[in-house]
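tool_call: predict_structure(chain=1)
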Amino acid sequence: MKTDLFLAGEWVDAKHKLRVVNPYTQQECASVSLADKNHLHKAIDEALACRPHFELVSAGQLSEILQQIAVKIHNRKAEFTQLIVMESAKPYVYAEGEVLRAIETFKIAAEECKRLPSELIDLDWTTTPNRKKGRVTYKSSGVVAGISPFNFPLNLVAHKIAPAIATRCPIILKPSSATPLTSLLLAHVISETSLPKGALSILPCSREVGQLLVEDNRISVLSFTGSPDVGWKMKTQSGKKKVVLELGGNAAAIVHEDADISSTVQKLSIGAFAYSGQVCIHTQRIYVHEKIVDQVTTALINSANSLKVGDPSLDTTNFSVMIDEKNALRIEEWLNEAQIAGAQLLCGGNRKGLLVEPTIVKLAKRGMKIYDEEVFGPVVCIQPYSSIEEAIELVNDSRFGLQASLFTNMHSVIETCAERIEVAGLILNDATTFRVDHMPYGGIKDSGFGREGVRYAMLDFLEPRMLVF
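tool_result:
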């Protein structure tokens, strides 16, 4: 596959290179061209020049392009899956699922691009008759800068690119420096379609060079998925741009006294340990009714201990290494700090290189990083509660508000939690990590603002235009 820059539809070699390392083997798997400031300026110039032509592409043509992308990804599903495994150490079973989701993301965009919002409104609501009407249509906001993280190197890239194409917004994407290969393979796929030149650039680059995407006033929209500290800082530096932030969380799950323990624990284990917890809606805090907390805890420990740990390229593996040693060391440090402050390990807690064992902790509390912050690793804190009001207060006692889970079939409990839990998405009887690609997905509080989910992302890439007649 090509490892050059994809700059406005052309493959461009660059002087500086980026080494891409397989986290599991620690072997270099590729060397990728690294964009400099001149490359970024050229990409912006080409994106601006592309806009008039892109605006003339019909909805039917856009839909066909997006459908072609979906088909081409499907035809190379095995190649995409293996590449995700290689550069991110995501277990094969999860990598394959990500590819299937990316296919769906482009299919959804192929439908949504044909139904951009518009409306006709009466304007004679004032006491002075005016007999006028208004037509509201929505147009491309302009050039989009997309910045994507390592943990979903295909589907989170798709969630930037597909809505941009569907709204005729040229997009310049900076993929994660840890996982640029999958996005470049996607660029190769897209280059085989009739998407106008200049409508897409994918440019691996340093954070310093990528800062141009944040600060350049020629860019109209910044769409960032990543850590809260970086995202909120970018917002202060972005000038007059629209900014969409999909940031982190420390997702909580409430397990009420009537929950089906077997099914619940299966879902909790997925939420807690899928991709070693490197998911922003990873289940980090579990609150269990005091009547069943011992049963749930024992079953969850057994589930954690039964995970198949090892080589992510094997389809039998469901748990493997972290993305890099820096993050593995950080989690080890946070666990050590928590134990000094009184937390107790129920299982796991050990690190060997990039591997951090599936870890369950009790007696975690406010003031501990594993409880307060986004751990972004395979660590969960479990504790009992006595009433649903107490559980709701515990869930809400966080600066994050992305998603949460509730395990119960009691209608009154469901309605109370839906009304009072301060998150953007409450998942009933399923993992906090549940997401399908057309639902509105995003956070409140420090978890960001704006929404992904193709149609909802499209709204952030559009601006209303009014005709009065």
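agent: The two ends are 54 Å apart (CA to CA). Proceeding to next step.
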